[in-house]
Write the C-alpha cells for this entry.
Amino acid sequence: MNKFFKVGVFGIALASLTVAAYAADLSGTWKGKVKIDASKLTHAPKADQQQKMMQGIARAQAMTIVLVLKPDHTFTETPPGRSGTWSVAGNKVSLQMTINGKPEGKADVFTIAKSQKVMSMSAPDPVSGKAGAITVTYSR
C-alpha cells in the first residue's frame, strides 16, 4: 500500500474520532449568559425608547439560559423556549431551531473551547450589522 495513502487514511480516521469525541462529550446541560455591548448597538430614535432598550438589555444580561443538548442530537433552550437539532463539525457546534420538525432560519454556530466546558458565539447588531454587539456563552 502506498505510504501517502496510509498516512491519508490515518488522518481521516483521526479527524473522524476527534469529531465523534466532541459530539459524545457535549450532550448534557449547559448554562448560558448573554453579554450585550450597548456601545455597538444602534441607538433608538427617542430617549424613552433608548431607556426601554437599555432596560431590556439589563434583563437579558441578568437571565440564565438553560441549554440541554440531548444524545439524539436534539436540543431545548429556555428561555426563550427554542428547540431543534444540534451538530458538530470540528470545534463548532451548530444549533438549528426547528418548527414542526422543519429548520427555521440560520443555525447559531458556537465555538467550543479546548476544555469542552465552554462554547460561545458572537452576533452583530441586528440593525447596523456592527460586529461583536452580542455574545452568548454557555458553560458546564
